[in-house]
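Structure first, sequence second, as always.
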């Protein structure tokens, strides 16, 4: 039991080191999810937002962006990036609810 825990810790640090390399190389990007914590996703899909289904706890990618950073931030704030999470119920959970 004890040795199993050590192995898991070692694996985890290896995972984090590899994640960091992938992020530094621009293959992955970090997302701060308000309730799930840090998530990672592949880059290359372009800027987009996320939808979190409260029913099945899955995160979906939403294409595109409608947010105009310069209009949202007050004067003298320099916006460098933003993340948007929408919360609700995904299509398959809506169907399940109605069934
Ligand atoms: Zn769902
Ligand atoms: Zn956006």
């Amino acid at each position: 039991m004890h040795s199993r825990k050590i192995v898991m810790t070692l694996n985890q640090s290896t995972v984090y080191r590899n994640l960091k390399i992938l992020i530094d190389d621009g293959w992955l990007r970090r997302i701060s999810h308000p309730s799930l914590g840090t998530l990672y996703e592949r880059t290359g899909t372009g800027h987009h937002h996320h939808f979190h289904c409260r029913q099945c706890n899955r995160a979906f990618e939403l294409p595109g962006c409608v947010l105009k950073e310069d209009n949202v931030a007050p004067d003298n704030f320099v916006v460098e990036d933003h993340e948007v999470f929408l919360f609700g119920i995904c299509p398959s959970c809506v169907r399940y609810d109605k069934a």
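Margin note: The pocket of zinc ion (ligand 1) is lined by residues 53, 55-56, 58, 90, 92-93 (CB under 6 Å).
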